[in-house]
Amino acid sequence: MYPPYPPPLARLGHPRFTRDSAFLLVFLNLTVDWLNVALQLSLPDFGRLRYVRELYDELSRSYCPLYYQESLVKYLQVTELIREVRTRMGSIKSFLVADLGCGIGVGLLVLLSARYVNYIVGIDISGESLRKAHELYVRFPNVEFVQCIMEMLPFRKASFDIVISVSSLDTDCEKNYVLQVRESSRVCKIAEIHVPVRGQVRVIYHLIEKEFKTHLEKCELTHHG
């Protein structure tokens, strides 16, 4: 069900993420992006990614007892931050969210409990974790999962309103971390929320000040109208 990385090309044709008819252009742009990333990754880097995948495949068998409580607390924190983003954005009622490194999906139910999250795409390198996640959320039509590496996300630019990561960015390897942050920024439209293993939570807004003011003015006009 979840093919190994690089991600399947069929995913590029998903109507939710390629809303126009320029499929070939989207495909070519992503292919160039992937080649660019691949050229920056050496054989040891790919070996590290394989090690990480196998590690999390193994951890998926005991994830809940080890990390459930910690993850739950962090996802509750993310939910509050998404609420703040929604308050700041005004008229936007709900968000399409990407969860980078979702694992077995421990926190997705917390996100779905917020009425302003209407669709979630869980992304992870571990196929075993995603199989468990799929079993948990098989009855949820507004949740889907994609197996890929975070350095090469199979989505067009600004595909998601909000991109989150909870203890999933690879801070131990600077090269991988930089590529992951770059990809997260590329596929995000409104805001990124990154919760590290240790340290301060980062919320990054993608709308520049002028665009944000214009958005607020439109909201006010709509409200008064």
Task: Describe the protein's topology.
Blueprint: H1 23-40, H2 43-59, H3 63-89, E1 95-100, H4 108-112, E2 117-124, H5 127-137, E3 143-147, E4 160-166, H6 174-186, E5 188-195, E6 202-205, H7 209-224
Parallel strand pairs: 1-2, 1-4, 2-3, 4-5
Antiparallel strand pairs: 5-6
Structural class: alpha/beta
Terminal Cα span: 49 Å
How big a fraction of the residues is strand? 15-25%
CATH H-level superfamily: Vaccinia Virus protein VP39
CATH hierarchy, class: Alpha Beta
Q: List the strand order in the largest sheet.
A: 3-2-1-4-5-6
CATH topology: Rossmann fold
**Given the C-alpha coordinates, what overall shape results?**
globular
Evaluate the radius of gyration: 18 Å
Task: Domain count, please report it.
Answer: 1
Order of helices and strands: HHHEHEHEEHEEH
Structure description:
This protein has 225 residues and is of the alpha/beta class. The chain has a single domain, classed as Vaccinia Virus protein VP39 (Rossmann fold). It has seven helices and six strands, in the order αααβαβαββαββα. The protein has helices at 23-40, 43-59, 63-89, 108-112, 127-137, 174-186, 209-224, and strands at 95-100, 117-124, 143-147, 160-166, 188-195, 202-205. Strands 3-2-1-4-5-6 form a six-stranded mixed beta sheet. It starts with 22 loop residues before the first helix and ends with a helix. Residues 1-28 and 215-225 have low confidence and may be disordered.
Properties at a glance:
single chain, 225 residues, alpha/beta, Rossmann fold, six-stranded mixed β-sheet, globular, disordered N terminus, disordered C terminus
